[in-house]
Amino acid sequence: AGMNPMDLKRGIDKAVIAAVAHIEGLAQPCSDSSTIAQVGSVSANSDTQVGEIIAEAMDKVGKEGVITVE
Questions:
Q1: Rounded to whole angstroms, how far apart are CA atoms 29 and 37?
Q2: Domain boundaries in the chain?
Q3: Which CATH code, of 3.40.1130, 3.30.260, 2.40.340, 3.90.1170, is assigned to 5-61?
Q4: Residue 37 burial (10 A CB sphere; 0-12, 13-18, 19+)
Q5: Which of 1, 9, 25, 44 is most exposed by smallest CB count within 10 Å?
Q6: How confident is the model at residue 69 (pLDDT cuts 50, 70, 90)?
Q7: What is the mean pLDDT of residues 6-35?
Q8: pLDDT for res 21
Q9: What is the DSSP track for 27-62?
Q10: How far apart are CA 63 and CA 16, in angstroms?
């Protein structure tokens, strides 16, 4: 209440830019299949089988490919 909506939007935009820059600074490249499988497993609630499937799919489509899960 009482805040200028455009000032609020500008503040949110600045926060998004700062957050993305910070995350990009923390990011580490993930190129080998075993590391991709580990990340996939963590993303799938520690399901190693799903992680291996994700790594196999990434090997097939490459780093610029798209994987759709239904």
A1: 14
A2: 5-61
A3: 3.30.260
A4: buried
A5: 1
A6: confident
A7: 95
A8: 98
A9: -----SHHHHHHHHHHHTTT-HHHHHHHHHHHHHH-
A10: 25
Answer yes or no: is pLDDT of 18 > 90.
yes
Structure tokens that stand for 21 in this block: 């820059």
| Distance of alpha carbon 34 from alpha carbon 7, whole angstroms | 46
59 token code pair: 């090997």
What would the two tokens of residue 67 be?
Answer: 């994987």
- Name which of 8-12, 52-56, 63-67 the model is least confident about: 63-67
CA distance 64 to 59: 11
In this structure, are residues 40 and 32 in contact, taking their beta carbons and an 8 Å threshold? no
Residue 8 near residue 2 (C-beta atoms within 8 A): no
